[in-house]
From TrEMBL:
CDD domains: VOC_like. It holds the Pfam family Glyoxalase. InterPro entries: Glyas_Bleomycin-R_OHBP_Dase, Glyas_Fos-R_dOase_dom, VOC_core. Residues 4-134 form the VOC domain. This is VOC family protein.
Amino acid sequence: MDIAIHGSFLPQTDPEAAIAFYRDLLGFEVRNDVGYEGMRWITVGPPGQPVSIVLHPPAVDPGITEDERRVIGEMMAKGTYAGILFSSDDLDGLFKHLQEGNAEIIQEPTDQPYGLRDGAVRDPSGNLIRIQQRV
């Protein structure tokens, strides 16, 4: 059986800010940008890689209650709702670039006892992005 990761989902609350972060700051391609009833689903991914991230409006599933929507909004504001893990072969250079782009740095690159160097930022919607580099 051959299984590969095709994509992942992260909520976004501001499509233009999401595009500015993922395309303009991280250098991802915008592969799809679909609007429907005032909402947008934006698919981005690193050039030359088949995996994608779908940046979607939060809490739009029909089965979600108003209380659940409120909780999701609160969790996104705190950065505890969604996250993703990236890797880089130049973590320090990437973090310098992110700082120059005014990204919200959560953790500066740090050597970890388990053989990785990693750091963390938040995207404009509050999603936690951990970025690691093998030491």
